[in-house]
Give the backbone structure.
Amino acid sequence: MAEGAVVVLRNIIPLGDGDRVSMTPALWATVFVAAVIGYRIMLLLRPGRWREWKKFPRGPPGRPLVGNWDVFFSGSPRQKLMELAKQYGNGDIVGLRMGFRPVVCVCSSMLAKELLHTHDKIFANRPRYDFCQTLFYGYDSAVIFSRYSSHLIRLRKLFTLQLFTPKRLSDLQFIRQEEMRKVISALHRTQTPRLAHKVEKIVSDMACNITVRLLQSRAFEQDKCSELNDLVRKLEHSSIPVLGDFIPWMKWLYFSKRARERRIHKEFEDVIDKMILDRHQLLRRCPPEEVPTDFLQVLLSKEGDENPDELLTIEEIKAVILDIFAGGLHTSSATVEWAMSELMSNPRVMEKLRAEIDNVKGLEDKSTLVTDEDVGRMPYLEKVIREVFRLHPVVPLLVPRLSTQEVEIAGGEYSLPQGTIAYVNAWALGREERTWGPRVSEFWPERFQEQCLDVKGQHFELLPFGSGRRMCPGMRLGLAIVHFTVANFVRFFEWQLPHGRSITELSESVGRGNSPSTSLHAIPIPRRE
Ligand code: HEM
Ligand SMILES: *[C@@H]1O[C@H](CO)[C@@H](O)[C@H](O)[C@H]1NC(C)=O
C-alpha cells in the first residue's frame, strides 16, 4: 500500500534536483494515510515481540512508533546515554528501541568486554543503513558500514598486513616529515601580523596530504585537499541513519536525501577515478620497476590476481579508498585539536611535555623534526595522548554493531535478541569512576603511571579505536599522526589564544561526532631561547 503512495507522490512532485519538497495539503494527506496504514501493518508484522521479553535491559519508555529516537538526535547522545544507563541499568547498560528495533548502549568496561571480546563474533556485524548503499559502495563491498563476511575479513587483512604494517609506516615516515615541514614553514611565514589559525583545519589538510601521498605517492594540486576535506565533512554529516532505516515503509520519504547522497558519492568517485586513471597511464608509460609500490599499487595489483581469494574488483578497490578517506582524516585531526586545547588549558602539562621533548631532541639543532623514533622515547607524550583519548574519544559511541543471534550477557542478567543494535559508549568508559577514581574529569596524564592501560583494544576501560573483529584497522597510522603532530607543534611553537578568547568556550559539541563545539583558534609563536 505504501508503494501505491509512492507512485502518487512521484506524480505530484517533479523529481528534479531540488532538495526541498513543497508539502501540499494533498501530499500531507497521502503521507498521513500511508503512515496510519503502514503502522497497522507493522504492528501485525512486528518481528518477535521482544518488548515483552523480561530480560531485555531496561530503559526510558519510548514514543509510539519512533521509540527512543529523541535520545540519539538531541543534545549530546553520549552523555544522555551514560545518564540513562545510571538510571536504569546500574551504570552498565540501557535498553532502547528505535522504530521496532531493539537497541542497547553499553557504558561499563565490564559489559564492553563481553560484547567486544566474549561475544565478539555475535556482534561482528553492522546494522544495514540505506546511506551505505548511496554514499558508500554498499553493504557488501566496503569496510566501515559493511556486513561481516569473508570478504570483509580479507579487506581488513589488507589494511593490517599490507597497507598499515609497522615496516611500511616507518619506510614512509618521510612523507609525514615532509608534510610537517610544509606546515611548520607556512606557520612561520604568517608571523606578521600574527594570525590565529584553526588548528583542526591545519591538521586535517595535512592529514589529507599525507593520506593522498600514501595512496598515490604524489600530492594533489594546491587546494584540492581542502576541497576533499569539505567533501569528507559532507560525507560525515550524511552518514547518519534516519527513521526510514528502522521503519521500512517510511524509506520512500527520503528520496531527496538519497539523491543528495548520490551526488556526494559521485564527487568522491570522480576524485578516485582520476587517481586510478593517472596510475593506469603511468603504468603504460613506465617500466614496472619504476612504478611506486604505494597503497594504490598494492590495491590495483589485486585487480588481476590469479588467486580468486585475493582478487578485488575495481568497485571494491574504490570502496577501500573511500573508506580510507572517510575513516582517517577527521579522526586524527579532531584528536590533535583536543590535545592542543587540553595542553593550552593545562600549562603545567604543556611545560612538562615540552621539557621532555627538548630533553630527547636536545637544544643545539633547533630545526630538526621530532621523528617516530624520538616519539618512542617520550613516555610522557604517550600518557598525554592516552589522557586525550580517555576524555575525548573522537568516535564516542564507536560504530554500531548488530547481533546475529540471541545472547545472554552479565551472567544471564540480560538477554539480547537477535538483531539488536549495540553501541559501546567509549566516552562513558573514560569517565567511569569505578576505573578512574573520583578525579575523572580532570586532565591528568600522570594517572597512567599507576594505571597501565593503553588504547590498543586490549583494555576495555579505554577504547578510542574499539576492539575485536571490527576494531579500527587504521590505528597505527592514526596514532603515528597524532603523536608526531602534537610533538612537533609543541617543539616548534608556543601556542596562544587570540585576544579576548578563552579556552572554556571549547566545550564538547552536541551531535554525533566529538570535535569541540567551537573550533580551536590559536596563534603559533615560534620558540626562541
Ligand atoms: C585517531 C585516529 C582514529 C580513531 C580515533 C579511529 C576510531 C575508529 C573507531 C572507534 C572505529 C570503530 C571500531 C569498532 O566498531 O569497534 C573505527 C573503524 C574504522 N577506522 Fe578508524 N580511527 C582513526 C583513524 C583511522 C585511520 C587513519 C584509518 C584509515 C586510513 C581508519 C579507518 C577505519 C576503518 C576502515 C574502520 C572500519 C573497520 C570495520 O568496520 O571493520 N581509521 N575507527
Ligand atoms: C598540501 O599539499 C599541497 C601541494 O604540495 C600544498 O600546496 C598545501 O599547502 C599542502 N597543505 C598543507 C596543509 O600542508
Remarks:
- The beta strands are 93-98, 101-106, 197-198, 401-402, 407-409, 414-416, 421-424, 493-496, 521-526.
- Confidence is low (pLDDT under 50) at residues 1-20, 509-513.
- Residues 179, 182-183, 202, 205-206, 209, 219, 222, 225 surround 2-acetamido-2-deoxy-beta-D-glucopyranose (ligand 2) (CB under 6 Å).
- Residues 1-45 form one domain.
